[in-house]
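thread: overnight batch results

M.L. [08:02]
morning all. the overnight job finished for the chain we discussed friday. pasting input first so we're all looking at the same thing
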Amino acid sequence: MASTSSPRHAVVVEDDADIRGLLVLILEQLDFVVTEAPDGLSGVEAVRSTNAELVTLDINLPDIDGMEVCRRLREFSDAYVLMLTARADEIDRLNGLDTGADDYISKPFSPKEVQARIRALFRRARTPAAPAEDQRQADELERAAVVQQSLLPRETVRVEGYDVAGAFRPTRSVGGDFYDWYQTHDGMHLTFADAMGKGMGAALIAATVRAVMRSVADTPAIADAFGSASATITSDLDQSGSFVTMFHARLDAASGRLSYIDAGHGLALHVPAEGTAQRLVSAGPPVGILDDQLWPAAELELEPGDSLVIVSDGVLDAHASLEEFLVNVEKVTRNGATSDEVCAALLELAPADTAEDDVTAVVVRRKH
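M.L. [08:03]
and the structure it wrote out:
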């Protein structure tokens, strides 16, 4: 007699097509309905849309790092997460880092071992949801909110020929979102970051990141500045078992040249005056994942009418797909008369009554 139980869903997040195909076969033998995802952002979307009960997750992905994927999944999903890695140093890191994953396995792997690990996962009882917040937790969240608000820039950037604005809307569950900017003799510096976690811990990590990034402002080359800052930040993150996604940029106002480094953030867009918006791809994993990591700098030219738009994952999470997210961000960017208007519209893409995370946006527009 055929089983009438509901099918179990799994998502395979893996950029290597051969390995992805093998994992699909392994999971189908365990009677999972499997969805494939070749990168991190599509993997997050697939887990959300299928309400998957299991995720196999590669660490090295072409857009956002597997650790960051796991962090985003834990904001809405209690699926079992099996991490896959091919490097010994990553295994050491997984042993010492609270990634939110349930287990890991190294490549190359045996199909039978993968199946055994998965069966073992599903024999575990899931930890029940935490009880309602007590007064002590509420007080900590209130203090964390104060810290988080203090990280936002108090000064308005007034760079000739540019319109710059930022907006931030917290949720009850205070996280580590923040943005920071300041003027320089030739333009401005900008940092947009999200520290893993919630509450006071995440807020304090964010405060540390902001201070360290400001301390390297006088280092001439952006790659050298970011490398020095990330080494300092990583030493602090090692103690807390955390990591931070970051987007850091330096603008030369006269030429419109924007030098930037994306460390696992992946949600910055270049919206040109003419043509299709392009997402700026991450140059590497978040800060704090791997020791001695280097992130190459990239450049783009902001022509008159162009905009740089950076948002937090709270905006992405409000969309059913990455494609829908890109279309809507580009649309509101083009429709806004000022950067302030664009920021307000970006926050509205993630309505306050349904948003599960802080929502943050920064827009740098070069005037016509």
